[in-house]
């Protein structure tokens, strides 16, 4: 933060503590004109007010709290840009990327810095690393039948994947359902693991400029007819002639291609919606969905468990 805000925060914080100290000192002085222990001549409902001082135990605790406030602010960060005498940090600040975070983490470990986040990561790796390494030695098919392994994989999925695919893994518009047998890039253990490790970048081009509005209607009609939908036969016949430009990815039979992530158009399962309007939007403007790569975030051993969990969702155990 800037020097101005650092000074502003420091002045307010220290001033507040100092103000509490002065207020306590003022309250300890007898300014009533009545001797301590005497009647204040205030009575209500039979209760008489006595001029008693603050309890000593309470006063001592208040002083201790003020002293601890100054000690804490001296040892730990809290006063603007002052990092504290101990050099403790909750986490690495001003990190802009995963690479910067990893570099800072390694530097903290090498220097023995009191960075709570880095120490927690190191402790977790020391404790759980061998467990994940042991799971990684087993095949995905084997892990898919191990309930304990699947519980671990499910927790990893809920923490990292459910934001897009849902906690039940059934997906939503633009995010695939992982519980069925419809796969864009293949549903084998190796293909699922590759998807999670490296991520996927879809590239459905926009055909609006090439086909024109009428051409898009025709191609959409033919695409819908491939899954048995009732369409205008005239439009579908015209669309079949134009489908050649789509066949390069989706195949002549419209059954898709794992190599390109091109969906099967014959099963009536649609990632972005199967209404005529939704399919028209897809053909007209294209789709460019992105599945992020998790290799540098989770690591291969954890991804191996997530793969087993995802695989188990669509296969009999």
From TrEMBL:
Keywords: Cell inner membrane, Cell membrane, Electron transport, Heme, Hydrogen ion transport, Ion transport, Iron, Membrane, Metal-binding, Oxidoreductase, Repeat, Respiratory chain, Transmembrane, Transmembrane helix, Transport
Location in the cell: Cell inner membrane
Pfam families in UniProt: Cytochrome_CBB3, FixP_N
Biological or metabolic pathway of the protein: Energy metabolism; oxidative phosphorylation
Keyword Nucleotidyltransferase: no
Domain Cytochrome c residues, every copy: 148-227, 234-314
Cofactor annotation comment: Binds 2 heme C groups per subunit.
Cofactor(s) essential for the protein: heme c
Primary residence: membrane
Assembly behavior: Component of the cbb3-type cytochrome c oxidase.
Name by which UniProt lists this protein: Cbb3-type cytochrome c oxidase subunit
